[in-house]
Predict the 3D structure of the following.
Amino acid sequence: MAAQDIIIRPVVTEKSMAGIAAKKYTFEVAKSAGKIEIAKAVEEIFKVKVKKVNTVNVRGQLRRQGRSEGYTPSWKKAYVTLTEDSKSIEFFEGMM
């Protein structure tokens, strides 16, 4: 799998933006990707050094539209921590 197929999008929320000071970034990743694959993909795309990767499987939420109801798709979230000597990811710097 290519690095662009593993990292789907960054997760931009208040909680994820609070972790930027500690070099902790949050991404939506492919459900089949493992921690090692995620670390290599982030290093390749953003040219940084990854210290640690934590992953969470996010369940879909129940949503209603009138009488009908269904679930939003489930997805996988990765918390990526960079090493202290690594540069920060420039994409997130403009968000703060």
User: Anything to note?
Assistant: The chain has four helices and six strands. The mean pLDDT is 94.
